[in-house]
Amino acid sequence: MAIERELKLALPGDLPAARADALISHLDRLPGAEARGERRLVNRYFDTPSLALASAKAALRLRFVARDAHAGQWLQTLKSVGEARDGLHVRHEWEQAVQGEALELPKLIAACDVPATAELLRAEGANVVAQFETNFVRRLWRYIAGDGTAVEIAFDRGEVAVDAGGKRHTAPLVEVELELLDTPDNDREGQGERVLHALAQNLRDVLPELHSDNVSKAQRGYRLRQDVLGH
Question: Tens of pLDDT along 45-62?
């Protein structure tokens, strides 16, 4: 099991291209940051018809990651109960490669070491169906702070989508995610979070439109689903 610690910053869905380019240029020049290229991500989220996973504050995702000159890869991810405060999301996460465009739930259940979450997936896994998608282009940088703290910076631009009644309903998705990858000395003093917040402030100085966001991509999908289906 991994504990994901990520600071999420949202941007307006109608962000002008020039403003996005300004952020990208700043990150390309940021001392300590190394550009890692682009990925195209197709993300399908699953739940039961009664939304049992959402009720338990869990999210189940099948993701396809593609990048130029590399074969794409399918991944399944389970995220369980966490907390979000001032844009900082802390939660359990299990991610595994899968053979193709299908969940491999027995493998995920075996890896999940939070008993309540594993039991939920064991009980409800046979009933899950695709509920919505979040699809976007992700531009990546790896940032190393002066103390050695490592952060992945992701700039995502795309959409949330729900298919219903033969129609595709979408909402824009524009976000920056700062994910804590590694910290010296097991981060006993909480320096990792301070690095995340300092980096976020650095980005806000360039793009004041950035604001802390406690809403995950999965939550955005469920909200659009509610708007479209009414339940």
Answer: 999 999 999 999 999 999
Give this prediction's pTM: 0.92
181: left (phi over 0), alpha (psi -120 to 50) or beta: alpha
Q: At the topology level of CATH, where does 2-229 sit?
A: Hypothetical Protein Pfu-838710-001 (2.40.320)
Strands 150-164 and 167-182: antiparallel
To the nearest 10 degrees (0 to 180), the angle between helices 17-29 and 191-206 is 130
pLDDT tens-digit series, residues 181-194: 988 876 666 788 89
Dist. CA 10–CA 52, nearest whole Å? 27
Mean pLDDT of 132-160: 96
Confidence class for position 212, pLDDT limits 50, 70, 90: very high
Sign of CA dihedral 166, 171, 177, 179: negative
- Distance in angstroms (rounded) separating the CA atoms of residues 215 and 51: 18
Question: Which residues 6+ apart lie within 8 Å of 137 measured at CB?
Answer: 38, 39, 40, 41, 156, 157, 158
217 in Cβ contact with 132 (< 8 Å): no
Cα gap 153→140, rounded to integer Å: 6
First CA to last CA distance, the chain: 32
The answer to whether 161 touches 140, Cβ cutoff 8 Å, is: no
